[in-house]
Input
Amino acid sequence: MNNSATEITAISPEQHRDQLQRRLIFNIAVAAVLITGFYSVYDALFNRLPFMALLNGCSAILFVVIAIVVHKAHSSRIIGRFFLLALLWVELYLLTFNPHEEYSFVWLAGVIPVIFILKGHRKGLYLSFLYATIFSTLYLQKMDVNGFANLLCSLYAIIAISYYYEIGWSKTEQRLVSTLDDLRQKSIVDELTDLYNRRYFNEILAREIQKSKRDAELLAFFMLDVDNFKEYNDEYGHHKGDQALSQIGHLLKEYLRRAGDYPFRLGGEEFGGVIHANRAEEVFPFVDAFRQAVENLNIEHVKSHNGKVLTVSIGLKIARKDEGITEEELYQMSDELLYKAKSSGRNRTCAG
Output
């Protein structure tokens, strides 16, 4: 079986947002390292403020650690909260100790986009208003009423801009995720029959074998081939042949509709199915009933050797719980049983 096809990995909106959050937090953490590192050196060498230099240096180290952890982490949720607390810590100590007030205001405004990044546009809006109101009130003692009003209006303007961009980001994110889902679906589904394709079969068979072992279930895999299909195409044309394959595919999809069942078009006139069962004796009657259902479609085939209608032959392999079978062995055994069904007269199911 060929596993060389390029994979398109399905991604949920939560996973996509988490990836973007990690990248943004990492970039902001790197910027925070540069800013706090610069002011640490500046306060030490030029302002002669060793205490402020120490605080800025500790903050720079803290943001370095955050950047490293974010880069290696698989989830941004906990790291993001820790990062937000670090920003608030910087703002609090600047509010208390920093003589350069404009520097403090930059940090005050910079926290707002981070809140929107972590919380989204709904929660971010409420939390940002709360944050801006509380911290601007704390700054009231350092400025007159006009300065306070200007600060508050500036912060609210930043909130409005951040909210606007967060809304746009969310819509773009939804469109991107929807496009990825569509591409993923198209990459694993056969267009003619609406069944899973060979690529997806290669992807999940090993997984289903492991699942059956873990859950102590029987796993059955069957392959079926349309009998005398070349003669059918020669007699009725390829358009009719595609219609017949589509009918068989839709019937197979109706039969394998339980959770955990997978119908496939493996290629050409060859189909397959993976089913889980609790008892082996349940499997053969179920699969053979599908063979009979195909015959009951009464698709005319005057060149058929089995009653002038289109029929299928099926090879069914049931993997027992303790058999330790691999996906290659399961496929090969089913293929051999299919060959046996074909060589025994067609329109029959051979199981093993």
